[in-house]
Amino acid sequence: MALTITEKILSSHLVDGKMVKGEEIGIRIDQTLTQDATGTMAYLEFEAMGIDRVRTELSVAYIDHNTLQSGFENADDHRFIGSIAKKHGIYFSRAGNGICHQVHLERFGAPGKTLIGSDSHTPTSGGVGMLAIGAGGLDVAVAMGGGAYYITMPKVVQINLTGKLRDWVSAKDIILEVLRRLTVKGGVGKVIEYVGEGVKTLTVPERATITNMGAELGATTSIFPSDEVTKEFLTAQGRGESWVELSADEGAVYDEYHEIDLSTLVPMVACPHSPDNVKTVEEVGELKVDQVCIGSCTNSSLQDLMKVAYILKGKKVHPDVSLTVTPGSKQVFNMLAKNGGLSDLIDSGARILESACGPCIGMGQSPNSGGISLRTFNRNFVGRSGTADAQVYLLSPEVAAISAITGKLTDPRTLGDMPKYEMPEEFDINDNMIEPPASIEESDKVEILRGPNIKEFPVADPIAEEIKASCLLKVGDNITTDHIMPAGAKILPYRSNIPYLSKFSFEVCDDTFPQRALDAGQGIIVGGSNYGQGSSREHAALVPLYLGIKAVVTVSFARIHRSNLINAGILPLNFENAEDYDKISQGDELLIPNVRQCIKSGEKMCLKNLTTGEEIPLVAELSARARDIILAGGLLNFTKEQQ
Ligand code: MIC
Ligand code: SF4
Fold first, then answer.
1. Mean of the pLDDT values across residues 100-121?
2. Which ligand 2 atom is nearest residue 64's CA?
3. What is the predicted pLDDT for the residue at 641?
4. Residue 164 pLDDT > 90
5. Is 569 inside a domain boundary?
6. In the prediction, which pLDDT does 555 show?
7. Residue 65 Cα, ligand 1 centroid: separation in angstroms?
8. Which ligand 2 atom is the nearest neighbour of the CA of 119?
9. Which residues span the domain enclosing 486?
10. Ligand 2 atom nearest 295 alpha carbon
11. DSSP assignment, residue 622?
12. Which residue in 29, 46, 127, 561 could disulfide with 207, CB within 3.0 to 4.6 Å?
């Protein structure tokens, strides 16, 4: 049978279930990654599972999110992660070495392998033909322990790329076009596979920009074939031996087909406040700009920054604009320094930041009040930049760089001919910021260094037979994990302190929610479609758990957040009829009877709105394994029961 790339990798890693679309399958995970903002919790969970040494081929712990050390908290967490990594067989990429996805692509990503990471942009490594999926920290902990990772067997979408990008149009414009067409929920339950003649015209970093931002489609992941371009990239990274050829078979059948003629694309922007609110630069017009930020795991490769350096060379950043540039990794940073590009950036007036997530997650560089910020990042949700009323636009490094000079949104095609970028034949390889783990013999001697920032995390009780609680919060469509559990410099240091974090839950929607929830003791949240899109942070489930949320009832969920709710022991439920969303108001008293019985039997549940007297049918859509997890009170309890 002719197979897609996705089907090839899934079938070679299948350990549980059948490859029937829509059914749950368990796959073997070759590699895992964590970052510090989700990692501290993931390693606490890993510890709670009592496993001595990781059972993957490779596990890496990165420090890249919480690098603003404005108190002891982040530094303590870094030390904790470093020590636990050393003890349990995990490589440790230290603060300053770069953004997890950029470094993983450079140093570890391998075609045909599976990777899960406690970060939603893990699909970046799909740029080298790896099946790389974002997951909750607990799922990563289980995979580190050798457990399978469970996903719904995805539909596979083909995006056929034809033609070639025109000068000054870039990979970012390709993914913005995909987002424009498919929207932020268009990828849910799907893997996006890129095929066609146009693929050959794209370098690995360009492919990685596209797979990275596939996360914003809600897709399970995105993947490119592994071809000669991949081979050259891996060889230049000194890892030619990890290359294998990988492409879809002739005649492979896809669930959806799309075609993009690259030669028709023009520079684009995603306007506030959603990555799918895409317009052409021309349509938006000459917007006056306050800030330009270049970097993030989407656009911080050497190729991206060399283009930026070329545009800025001999020019001056506009006096009304603050420009920041973040090289994605130490490798990029150092190569830029050695080839003189860095000097061009510094000369122009760019503010150079360390290789980390930085402004992308609100760790510094918040824009001025009502500021217009152009960013090469992947998310522009309200408040994410740290300034509640900022207007964030997402775009390519080329548009960002030229706009930083002119002070207004500018189409880079006004720059004349674009010089051809040549990929280096050899990257600068120096892994001295990646600490290897202790040997098995030495690991006993490694002490785990825990700071006072680490507090106990909540574990659910097995779900009750009846849920009687009020609707503590009703929210609309496309609620992001940045709404549920915001990030940013002020609270990100408390990712291992759930009680403290809980004070900020849903702050952007209703800042009375946390206290009302604590007062009520238990509650239900009601949401619209695509609830929980965005980050993989399991804190968006652990915090509601701590606040007594027993069930979340929505029109539909985003994939990772739904799994995180189940893992935490919170019941995710869907309205059988989407219109019933209107039959519940915030404050209504609700009753869901026979919960355990319905979960066991798979029968529909009936929610009684005790305030209005209406009865609302709900569906749980739980796989057999998810049912057992919910009944056990979350994945940790379930895993312990199984052990
Ligand atoms: C993000 O881009 O939202 C983050 C911060 O990288 C998150 C992870 C987190 O919240 O720690 C993600 O994408 O999963
Ligand atoms: Fe870091 Fe931003 Fe990438 Fe998230 S999206 S991993 S915060 S750079």
1. 98
2. 1
3. 87
4. yes
5. yes
6. 98
7. 8
8. 6
9. 467-642
10. 8
11. -
12. 127
Distance 36 CA to ligand 1 centre (A): 10
Instruction: Supply 101's token pair.
Output: 């996805």
Q: Mark which of 390, 411, 432 sits at the end of a domain.
A: 411
pTM of the model: 0.98
The kind and range of the H/E element at 162 are strand 155-162
Query: What band does 435 get if pLDDT is binned at 50, 70 and 90?
Result: very high
| 489 & 620 share domain | yes
Q: Over pLDDT 90: what percentage of the chain?
A: 98
Whether 80 maps to a domain, the answer reads no
Mean pLDDT value across the chain = 97
Q: Is 497 touching ligand 1 by the criterion CB < 6 Å?
A: no
| pLDDT computed for residue 640 by the predictor | 84
Cα 319 → chain centroid: 34
Say how many Å lie between the CA of residue 487 and the centre of ligand 1. Answer: 8
Section 534-551 average pLDDT:
98
What separation in Å is there between the alpha carbon of 535 and the centre of ligand 1?
A: 4
Residue 400 in tokens: 């960002």
Cβ(396)–Cβ(301) under 8 Å?
A: no
Average pLDDT over residues 251-264: 98
* Cα–Cα–Cα angle for 44, 45, 46, rounded to 5 degrees: 90
Residue 642 pLDDT: 84
* Residue bearing the CA closest to ligand 2, atom 7: 361
Ligand 2 centroid vs 299 CA: distance in angstroms? 11
Residue 483 lies in a domain: yes
Distance from residue 496's CA to the centre of ligand 1 (Å): 15
Claim to verify: residue 400 and residue 490 sit in the same structural domain: no
**378 CA: nearest ligand 1 atom:** 2
pLDDT band at 87 (very low <50, low <70, confident <90, very high): very high
Residue 476 has pLDDT above 80, yes or no: yes
pLDDT for 643 beyond 80: no
Choose which residue among 36, 62, 101, 381 to substitute to test ligand 2 binding: the one with the highest number of ligand atoms within 8 A of its C-beta.
101
Task: Using the 3D structure, point to which of 411, 444, 475 is the last residue of a domain.
Answer: 411
* DSSP code string of 397-456: HHHHHHHHHHSB---GGGG-SPPPPPPPSS-----TTEEPPPPHHHHTTPPP---TT--P
CATH number at residue 547: 3.20.19.10
Kindly state whether residue 69 falls inside one of the protein's structural domains: no
Domain count, the chain: 2
Distance CA 9, CA 123 (A): 14
d(CA 388, CA 104): 32
Residue nearest to atom 9 of ligand 1 (CA): 537
| 633, 497: one domain | yes
> Measured from the CB, is residue 121 less than 6 Å from ligand 1?
yes
